[in-house]
Amino acid sequence: MLKKLSFDENAPWKQRFRAPTILWTQLAKAAPARGLAASNKSGVIQLYAWHVPTGELQQLTHQADGKIFGVLSPDGRYVYSREARRKMSRRACRPTRRLAWLSAAPETCSRSPRRPRRASTSTSWT
Protein backbone atom coordinates (compact mmCIF):
# COMPACT_ATOMS: atom_id res chain seq x y z
CA MET A 1 0.00 0.00 0.00
CA LEU A 2 1.27 3.46 -0.85
CA LYS A 3 1.94 6.01 1.85
CA LYS A 4 0.26 9.36 1.74
CA LEU A 5 2.52 11.96 0.13
CA SER A 6 3.82 14.51 2.61
CA PHE A 7 4.13 18.17 1.56
CA ASP A 8 5.67 19.53 4.78
CA GLU A 9 9.03 21.33 4.73
CA ASN A 10 11.08 18.28 5.77
CA ALA A 11 9.48 15.71 3.49
CA PRO A 12 12.02 13.10 2.31
CA TRP A 13 11.36 13.77 -1.37
CA LYS A 14 12.06 17.51 -0.88
CA GLN A 15 15.34 16.82 0.93
CA ARG A 16 16.58 14.91 -2.12
CA PHE A 17 16.18 18.02 -4.29
CA ARG A 18 17.84 20.27 -1.70
CA ALA A 19 20.96 18.16 -1.27
CA PRO A 20 24.10 20.32 -1.15
CA THR A 21 26.01 20.35 -4.43
CA ILE A 22 29.22 21.96 -5.63
CA LEU A 23 28.65 23.79 -8.91
CA TRP A 24 32.27 24.53 -9.83
CA THR A 25 35.76 24.73 -8.36
CA GLN A 26 38.97 26.59 -9.17
CA LEU A 27 42.51 25.96 -7.91
CA ALA A 28 45.10 28.69 -7.36
CA LYS A 29 47.85 28.22 -9.95
CA ALA A 30 50.74 29.08 -7.60
CA ALA A 31 49.18 27.51 -4.49
CA PRO A 32 47.31 24.31 -5.44
CA ALA A 33 46.37 23.66 -1.80
CA ARG A 34 43.95 26.61 -2.03
CA GLY A 35 40.81 26.64 -4.05
CA LEU A 36 37.51 28.41 -4.58
CA ALA A 37 34.15 26.67 -4.88
CA ALA A 38 30.53 27.66 -5.48
CA SER A 39 28.03 25.56 -3.54
CA ASN A 40 24.47 25.62 -2.26
CA LYS A 41 25.56 24.12 1.08
CA SER A 42 23.95 27.03 2.98
CA GLY A 43 20.67 26.79 1.02
CA VAL A 44 21.63 29.52 -1.47
CA ILE A 45 24.61 29.41 -3.84
CA GLN A 46 27.58 31.15 -2.21
CA LEU A 47 31.37 31.25 -2.66
CA TYR A 48 33.52 29.07 -0.40
CA ALA A 49 37.23 28.93 0.37
CA TRP A 50 38.29 25.35 -0.34
CA HIS A 51 41.22 23.85 1.56
CA VAL A 52 42.12 21.18 -0.99
CA PRO A 53 44.16 18.73 1.16
CA THR A 54 41.37 18.36 3.74
CA GLY A 55 38.39 19.08 1.49
CA GLU A 56 37.07 21.62 4.02
CA LEU A 57 34.83 24.44 2.74
CA GLN A 58 34.54 27.79 4.54
CA GLN A 59 31.80 30.19 3.43
CA LEU A 60 33.13 33.52 2.14
CA THR A 61 29.99 35.30 0.90
CA HIS A 62 26.75 35.74 2.81
CA GLN A 63 24.39 37.39 0.35
CA ALA A 64 20.66 36.75 0.62
CA ASP A 65 20.27 36.30 -3.15
CA GLY A 66 23.46 34.25 -3.43
CA LYS A 67 26.77 34.71 -5.22
CA ILE A 68 27.75 32.34 -8.00
CA PHE A 69 30.69 34.01 -9.78
CA GLY A 70 34.13 34.75 -8.41
CA VAL A 71 37.79 34.41 -9.38
CA LEU A 72 40.68 33.22 -7.23
CA SER A 73 43.98 35.10 -7.55
CA PRO A 74 46.89 33.02 -8.90
CA ASP A 75 48.66 33.07 -5.50
CA GLY A 76 45.44 32.01 -3.74
CA ARG A 77 45.39 34.96 -1.34
CA TYR A 78 42.31 36.78 -2.67
CA VAL A 79 38.92 36.13 -4.21
CA TYR A 80 37.48 38.74 -6.59
CA SER A 81 33.77 39.10 -7.29
CA ARG A 82 31.43 41.75 -8.66
CA GLU A 83 28.87 43.69 -6.68
CA ALA A 84 25.23 43.26 -7.58
CA ARG A 85 23.93 45.82 -10.04
CA ARG A 86 21.44 48.10 -8.30
CA LYS A 87 19.80 50.86 -10.31
CA MET A 88 22.97 51.63 -12.20
CA SER A 89 23.12 52.70 -15.80
CA ARG A 90 23.99 50.03 -18.34
CA ARG A 91 27.44 51.48 -18.90
CA ALA A 92 28.32 51.97 -15.25
CA CYS A 93 30.92 49.53 -13.99
CA ARG A 94 29.98 47.38 -11.07
CA PRO A 95 32.51 47.66 -8.27
CA THR A 96 34.80 44.70 -7.74
CA ARG A 97 35.04 43.21 -4.27
CA ARG A 98 38.19 41.58 -2.97
CA LEU A 99 37.92 39.00 -0.20
CA ALA A 100 40.86 37.46 1.61
CA TRP A 101 40.82 33.69 1.03
CA LEU A 102 39.97 32.83 4.66
CA SER A 103 38.22 36.03 5.69
CA ALA A 104 34.75 37.34 5.00
CA ALA A 105 35.71 41.02 5.34
CA PRO A 106 35.38 42.43 1.79
CA GLU A 107 37.30 45.35 0.34
CA THR A 108 36.00 47.37 -2.58
CA CYS A 109 38.61 47.83 -5.27
CA SER A 110 38.74 51.32 -6.71
CA ARG A 111 39.12 50.13 -10.31
CA SER A 112 38.50 46.88 -12.04
CA PRO A 113 41.44 45.42 -13.94
CA ARG A 114 41.14 46.50 -17.56
CA ARG A 115 40.88 44.01 -20.34
CA PRO A 116 43.39 44.39 -23.16
CA ARG A 117 42.03 46.22 -26.18
CA ARG A 118 41.27 44.20 -29.25
CA ALA A 119 43.32 44.72 -32.34
CA SER A 120 41.51 46.66 -35.00
CA THR A 121 40.30 44.54 -37.88
CA SER A 122 39.47 47.43 -40.17
CA THR A 123 41.91 48.45 -42.88
CA SER A 124 42.31 51.65 -44.76
CA TRP A 125 42.56 51.36 -48.56
CA THR A 126 43.30 54.96 -49.43
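the 2nd protein, sequnce then structure:
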Amino acid sequence: MNPGRNRLGLILVTQQSSVIESGTAQVWVAKDTKSKAMGPSEAPWYQLTAYEKTHDRSPRTPLPGLFATEIELPAAGIWNVGVTVTAGSRRFAATGAVQATSQATPAQLGSKRSGSRRRWPRRWPRSRRYAPGRRSVTCTTSHWKTPSPAASPR
Protein backbone atom coordinates (compact mmCIF):
# COMPACT_ATOMS: atom_id res chain seq x y z
CA MET A 1 0.00 0.00 0.00
CA ASN A 2 1.05 3.58 -0.60
CA PRO A 3 0.13 6.75 1.29
CA GLY A 4 -3.26 8.00 0.12
CA ARG A 5 -6.43 6.12 -0.73
CA ASN A 6 -6.12 2.28 -0.71
CA ARG A 7 -8.52 -0.62 -1.10
CA LEU A 8 -8.49 -3.00 1.86
CA GLY A 9 -9.92 -6.52 1.81
CA LEU A 10 -10.64 -8.27 5.11
CA ILE A 11 -11.31 -11.91 5.88
CA LEU A 12 -12.28 -12.26 9.51
CA VAL A 13 -11.97 -15.63 11.26
CA THR A 14 -13.33 -16.56 14.69
CA GLN A 15 -11.32 -18.41 17.34
CA GLN A 16 -13.15 -21.58 16.21
CA SER A 17 -11.67 -21.09 12.70
CA SER A 18 -14.95 -20.19 11.00
CA VAL A 19 -15.20 -17.25 8.62
CA ILE A 20 -17.56 -14.40 9.54
CA GLU A 21 -19.81 -14.39 6.49
CA SER A 22 -22.31 -11.56 6.65
CA GLY A 23 -23.06 -8.14 8.01
CA THR A 24 -21.12 -4.95 7.57
CA ALA A 25 -17.73 -4.21 9.09
CA GLN A 26 -16.63 -0.85 10.45
CA VAL A 27 -12.91 -0.13 9.94
CA TRP A 28 -10.74 2.38 11.84
CA VAL A 29 -7.11 3.28 11.11
CA ALA A 30 -4.63 4.89 13.54
CA LYS A 31 -0.89 5.63 13.42
CA ASP A 32 -0.38 4.05 16.85
CA THR A 33 -2.43 2.78 19.78
CA LYS A 34 -2.39 6.17 21.55
CA SER A 35 -3.48 8.42 18.66
CA LYS A 36 -7.06 9.13 17.62
CA ALA A 37 -8.35 6.69 15.00
CA MET A 38 -9.66 7.79 11.60
CA GLY A 39 -12.97 6.29 10.59
CA PRO A 40 -15.12 4.41 10.65
CA SER A 41 -15.15 3.27 7.03
CA GLU A 42 -17.99 0.94 6.13
CA ALA A 43 -16.87 -2.40 4.66
CA PRO A 44 -19.76 -4.43 3.21
CA TRP A 45 -19.59 -8.21 2.72
CA TYR A 46 -18.91 -9.41 -0.85
CA GLN A 47 -19.82 -13.00 -1.71
CA LEU A 48 -17.26 -14.69 -4.02
CA THR A 49 -19.43 -15.87 -6.92
CA ALA A 50 -17.04 -15.74 -9.88
CA TYR A 51 -16.72 -19.54 -10.09
CA GLU A 52 -20.44 -19.98 -10.71
CA LYS A 53 -20.71 -17.03 -13.08
CA THR A 54 -17.68 -17.90 -15.24
CA HIS A 55 -17.72 -21.71 -14.90
CA ASP A 56 -14.08 -21.46 -13.86
CA ARG A 57 -12.33 -24.83 -13.44
CA SER A 58 -9.27 -23.59 -11.58
CA PRO A 59 -8.75 -24.65 -7.95
CA ARG A 60 -11.58 -23.19 -5.91
CA THR A 61 -10.95 -21.14 -2.80
CA PRO A 62 -12.65 -22.39 0.37
CA LEU A 63 -13.33 -18.77 1.37
CA PRO A 64 -16.96 -17.71 0.90
CA GLY A 65 -16.23 -13.99 0.52
CA LEU A 66 -14.67 -10.93 2.12
CA PHE A 67 -15.29 -7.48 3.51
CA ALA A 68 -13.83 -4.60 1.46
CA THR A 69 -13.48 -0.86 1.85
CA GLU A 70 -11.24 2.06 0.94
CA ILE A 71 -9.05 3.59 3.63
CA GLU A 72 -6.91 6.71 3.71
CA LEU A 73 -3.30 6.34 4.88
CA PRO A 74 -1.88 9.89 5.22
CA ALA A 75 1.81 8.90 5.37
CA ALA A 76 4.21 6.01 5.01
CA GLY A 77 4.63 3.73 8.01
CA ILE A 78 2.90 0.95 9.88
CA TRP A 79 -0.78 1.66 10.60
CA ASN A 80 -3.00 -0.07 13.17
CA VAL A 81 -6.36 -1.27 11.88
CA GLY A 82 -9.38 -1.94 14.08
CA VAL A 83 -12.49 -3.73 12.83
CA THR A 84 -15.92 -4.40 14.31
CA VAL A 85 -18.57 -6.56 12.66
CA THR A 86 -22.21 -7.05 13.52
CA ALA A 87 -23.46 -10.27 11.93
CA GLY A 88 -27.05 -10.91 13.00
CA SER A 89 -27.18 -10.71 16.79
CA ARG A 90 -23.43 -11.41 17.18
CA ARG A 91 -20.70 -8.78 17.41
CA PHE A 92 -17.04 -9.35 16.61
CA ALA A 93 -13.89 -7.20 16.88
CA ALA A 94 -10.39 -7.61 15.48
CA THR A 95 -7.15 -5.67 15.15
CA GLY A 96 -4.25 -5.83 12.75
CA ALA A 97 -1.67 -3.71 10.98
CA VAL A 98 -0.89 -2.62 7.43
CA GLN A 99 2.25 -1.02 6.05
CA ALA A 100 2.25 1.96 3.71
CA THR A 101 5.43 2.64 1.78
CA SER A 102 6.36 5.60 -0.39
CA GLN A 103 8.20 3.25 -2.77
CA ALA A 104 6.50 1.87 -5.85
CA THR A 105 4.25 -1.09 -5.14
CA PRO A 106 5.05 -4.05 -7.40
CA ALA A 107 2.19 -5.18 -9.66
CA GLN A 108 -0.20 -2.50 -8.47
CA LEU A 109 -3.73 -2.87 -9.87
CA GLY A 110 -4.12 -1.03 -13.15
CA SER A 111 -0.40 -0.62 -13.72
CA LYS A 112 1.28 -1.34 -17.05
CA ARG A 113 3.64 -4.29 -17.40
CA SER A 114 7.26 -3.23 -17.26
CA GLY A 115 10.20 -4.81 -18.98
CA SER A 116 10.51 -6.44 -22.33
CA ARG A 117 8.02 -8.55 -24.22
CA ARG A 118 7.58 -12.27 -23.71
CA ARG A 119 10.74 -14.26 -23.26
CA TRP A 120 9.42 -17.34 -25.04
CA PRO A 121 8.33 -17.67 -28.68
CA ARG A 122 4.65 -17.28 -29.47
CA ARG A 123 4.75 -20.44 -31.54
CA TRP A 124 7.36 -23.10 -31.59
CA PRO A 125 9.40 -23.21 -34.80
CA ARG A 126 7.75 -25.43 -37.41
CA SER A 127 10.47 -28.07 -37.05
CA ARG A 128 9.66 -28.50 -33.33
CA ARG A 129 5.85 -28.48 -33.61
CA TYR A 130 5.50 -31.94 -35.12
CA ALA A 131 7.48 -35.06 -34.51
CA PRO A 132 6.68 -38.24 -36.50
CA GLY A 133 4.89 -40.81 -34.36
CA ARG A 134 4.31 -38.35 -31.51
CA ARG A 135 1.56 -35.99 -30.53
CA SER A 136 1.82 -32.38 -31.59
CA VAL A 137 3.90 -30.37 -29.13
CA THR A 138 1.29 -27.59 -29.15
CA CYS A 139 -1.51 -30.03 -28.21
CA THR A 140 -2.46 -30.22 -24.54
CA THR A 141 -5.62 -32.34 -24.63
CA SER A 142 -5.96 -36.09 -25.12
CA HIS A 143 -8.66 -35.95 -27.83
CA TRP A 144 -6.22 -34.80 -30.51
CA LYS A 145 -4.91 -37.42 -32.88
CA THR A 146 -1.26 -38.10 -33.53
CA PRO A 147 -0.26 -36.35 -36.76
CA SER A 148 0.81 -38.64 -39.54
CA PRO A 149 4.44 -38.42 -40.71
CA ALA A 150 3.15 -37.44 -44.17
CA ALA A 151 1.43 -34.35 -42.71
CA SER A 152 4.64 -33.26 -41.04
CA PRO A 153 6.39 -30.52 -43.07
CA ARG A 154 10.03 -31.14 -43.90
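Residues 134-146 have pLDDT under 50 and may be disordered. The helical segments are 50-54, 126-129.
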